[in-house]
Design a protein that fits this description.
By secondary structure, this protein is of the alpha+beta class. It folds into two domains: 25-131, Nucleic acid-binding proteins (OB fold (Dihydrolipoamide Acetyltransferase, E2P), Beta Barrel); 139-163. The protein has helices at residues 2-18, 31-36, 38-41, 80-83, 138-162; strands at residues 45-59, 62-68, 73-79, 94-95, 98-109, 115-127, 130-131. The chain has a five-stranded mixed beta barrel with strand order 1-2-3-6-5. A two-stranded antiparallel sheet has the order 4-7. The longest helix is centred in the last third of the chain and has 25 residues, at 138-162. It is elongated and about 100 Å long.
């Protein structure tokens, strides 16, 4: 048993020596961290998680997708095949798919006019989006009816005053 654990440890150390990035399991970074430490993460492989929002903007074989982690939204440039995995994008009427994107972070992308973006290499869907049913707020409805009635009453009183 001890021999197997020594062998495993030696293999693990050799893997880490050959490929040091294997030691770091890509933990998802927040938008605030990426924006705040943009210089540190520039041209590095990052993982970013959030809700796909807005429109998927197709540009030939590629697409722009905005991903919002709750604090900020970052533009992600990806192959159309990756973008096709997204079925719902967040809006007033829908909750977007929750995705994890891994790709190269650019604080000032030379390909896209100096914008901050991520060039996705992979996309993993973590949650499926859905349509959102908006319920009518009865308090607001009743207040609107009351204010409309008050407006009509004021209008009628002003007409009688002029005569």
């Amino acid at each position: 048993m001890k021999n197997n654990s020594k062998t495993f440890l030696i293999i693990l150390l050799l893997m880490l020596a050959v490929y040091p990035k294997a030691a770091v399991f890509c933990q998802s970074l927040s938008s605030s961290e990426l924006i705040g430490k943009a210089k540190e993460y520039d041209a590095k492989l990052v993982t970013y998680t959030g809700e796909a929002i807005g429109d998927i903007m197709l540009r030939g074989e590629f697409a722009w997708v905005n991903i919002n982690d709750g604090d900020n939204a970052l533009g992600v440039w990806m192959n159309v095949s990756l973008a096709k995995e997204i079925n719902f994008t967040g809006s007033y009427k829908t909750r977007g798919d929750r995705v994890e994107v891994t790709g190269i972070f650019h604080r000032a992308c030379p390909e896209h006019g100096g914008d901050l973006d991520i060039h996705a290499q992979s996309l993993r869907k973590l949650g499926v989006g859905r349509t959102v049913n908006q319920r009518l707020n009865l308090d607001k409805k009743n207040l609107s009816i009351f204010l409309f009635g008050a407006l009509i009453l004021i209008w009628i009183l002003t007409l009688f005053r002029r005569k």
